[in-house]
């Protein structure tokens, strides 16, 4: 005999048998197709509630995309401005020297010297000796000539 059944009082065992018989009778009456049809009917009648979370709504996504574009454009502009400020623009200048007089040539050379002086720090030491210059400073001196 089952030890669990031996421990149950007779009244409890009778109640369980009665409950089991009632559950079996009720389950025979329930039709899964009918339950499914009633659930679908109720869903159609009430409408399916929109379960989208707020951050997946199209308006919020559009605003987030616009903010991302503004931030990216600002960052790009900052980087471009910093890069442009760090690099000197060198434009080639051609001068037809055959048509210039001696005075005009002197003024062109003075203007070129002023432009170079404004763009580049003097690489040569004040005493005029090139022996103590580093390789980079020597390259700057050669580029300025």
Task: Describe, in plain words, how this protein is organized in 3D.
This protein is mostly helical and 145 residues long. The protein folds into three domains: 49 residues, no CATH class; 36 residues; 55 residues. Helices cover 67% and strands 0% of the residues. It contains six helices and no strands. The longest helix is centred in the middle third of the chain and has 29 residues. The protein is rod-shaped.
Fraction of residues in β-strands = under 5%
Sequence of secondary-structure elements = HHHHHH
Quick check: average pLDDT? 77
**Helicity range of the residues?**
55-70%
Instruction: Give the tally of structural domains.
Output: 3
Q: Termini, distance in Å?
A: 114 Å
Tally of individual helices: 6
Uncertain residue ranges: none
Category by helix and strand content: mainly alpha
State Rg: 46 Å
Globular, elongated, flat, extended or rod-shaped: what is the shape?
Answer: rod-shaped
Major β-sheet profile? none
Q: How many extended strands?
A: 0
Short recap of the structure:
The chain is mainly alpha-helical and 145 residues long.
How are the SSEs placed, and which strands pair?
Blueprint: H1 3-7, H2 10-29, H3 32-46, H4 58-86, H5 102-119, H6 135-144
